[in-house]
Amino acid sequence: MPHPVTPALAGIPLEFLLFAVVLAMVAFAHVSTMLTALGGALVITIYKVLWAPFGEGAGVAGLLAHAGHEWVGLANLLALLLGFALLAKHFERSRIPDILPDYLPDDWKGPFVLLWLVFFISSFLDNIAAAIIGGTVAHSVFRGKVHIGYLAAIVAASNAGGSGSVVGDTTTTMMWLAGVAPSQVLHAYVAAGVALLVCALPAARQQQAYSPIVKDAPAGVRIDAARVAIVAGVLVAAVLTNVLLSVRFPDWIGVFPFLGAAVWLTLGATALWRRPDWHELPGALRGAVFLLALVWSASMMPVQALPAASWPSALTLGFVSAVFDNIPLTALALRQGGFDWGFLAYAVGFGGSMIWFGSSAGVALSGQYPEARSVLLWLRHGWHVALAYVVGFAALLVVLGWQPHQAGA
Asked: What keyword terms does UniProt attach to this protein (predicted)?
């Protein structure tokens, strides 16, 4: 069935030009990023309804069908961003971050080890939670002063950690559900490990020079066991829900936001034991609305196909994912086939770390550290992330080479 024709300028669909203007304003204009993203989403939506058909059809009917297709993913993202913001405060008030200086090295190796801990956590847990936990620990062990280059590295570590695990990132889970064997994405860790090493070394030294790690934990710190149990309960609920849906009930994934619901049901069930810090929600909501507006706008782009599967096209997709939602990119790649899924998982996962709004982990962390919401500062101080992406990709190419598979093959 042919795809609907969409208006274009010099061969470029007008939706892409509108989206590019929105991204440029977010990156460089000194206006509210949330209002810019919301305004851009509204303009693109109206344009699509009046002049350019959705992939599901034209006009209001097409809009409703598209919303029906996207709402579960958007609702899950909203629930996770807000839920993990509350979880971060539980974790902070558990006092665990306060005792970590006794267990982390006292020099630049302390922030270096912390990045690898974020990497490990993200291998089995959502990258949003891993980034927020990393940001919470960093706030404590660095006296509240965290370098933007180090924040970029935390996001990179959280995205790298999930790239080789089919339960560590939404995109790898999508591949698994489409028939890609877990072993066919596992080698993404070759690239991810090299990339994290490349960016973690300069980032750790940046942080140690900016605000050294606390050498000793304060005297008399008492762990709040109840809050520790709540944090553990929420994380276990999220992991079990993700695995259960993926293994036993894959057809339910697109029906209801079960993952976000599991997080919120656990938070609600434990609210009488330890009250969540509800005042965290307004700030988290602003960041969530911003990201949802960008994801919604990206979902309306008329991308019917990707360049032919090859390692150069996979490398390019990593840079594209820094500004374009990686979920539709992954869906298109699965439909097209012929990719080396480990390369693709690494590219669309780690690539989003190069700009602060390129991944949900970056947006979530910027809720804790608003100073990170600057593309220029992120690129200037987090230069090592883009370098690490290329070096990691090259390492995987040299070590294992491009080994394409069809989904399900």
From this structure: Membrane, Transmembrane, Transmembrane helix
* Number of Cβ atoms within 10 Å of the Cβ of 234: 25
Instruction: Round the average pLDDT of the chain to a whole number and report it.
Output: 90
Helix (H, G, I), strand (E, B), or coil: what is residue 340? coil
Distance of CA 271 to the CA centre of its chain: 27
DSSP 108: T
The reply to whether 2 falls in a domain is no
Per-residue model confidence (pLDDT) at position 304 = 72
Cβ proximity of 46 and 15 under 8 Å = no
pLDDT, tens digit, 9 for 90 and up, residues 264-297: 999 999 999 999 999 999 989 998 899 899 889 9
Report yes or no on 180 lying in a domain.
yes
- Find the mean pLDDT for residues 345-363: 93
Q: How many residues does the chain have?
A: 409
Residue-wise pLDDT for 90-116, tens only, equals 999 999 998 988 889 989 999 999 999
Tell me the backbone φ, ψ of residue 338, rounded to 5 degrees. Answer: 85, 5
Burial of residue 35, with CB atoms counted within 10 A of its CB: 0-12 exposed, 13-18 middle, 19 or more buried: middle
Which of 47-51, 151-155, 242-246 has the least mean pLDDT? 242-246
Residue listed under structure tokens 């960093």: 138
> Into how many domains does the chain fold?
1
Segment 337-349 shows an average pLDDT of 94
For residue 405, tell me if it sits in a domain: no
The boundaries of the domain holding residue 382 are: 8-399
Rg (alpha carbons) of the chain, rounded to whole number: 21
Cα 220 from Cα 225, distance rounded (Å): 15
Tokens standing for residue 67: 């919303």
- Please give the average per-residue pLDDT across 329-336, as a whole number: 83
- Name the nearest CA neighbour of 361 among 375, 349, 371: 349
Instruction: Determine the Cα–Cα distance for residues 136 and 117; give it in Å rounded to an integer.
Output: 13
List, in sequence order, every residue forming a beta bridge with 242; answer none if it has no partner.
none
DSSP state of 9: E
For residues 222-235, average pLDDT: 94
| Nearest in space to 242 (alpha carbons), one of 8, 45, 76 | 76
Domain annotation covers residue 257: yes
Residue type, 274: R
- List, in sequence order, the alpha helices (H) in 168-257: 170-177, 183-186, 188-210, 225-247
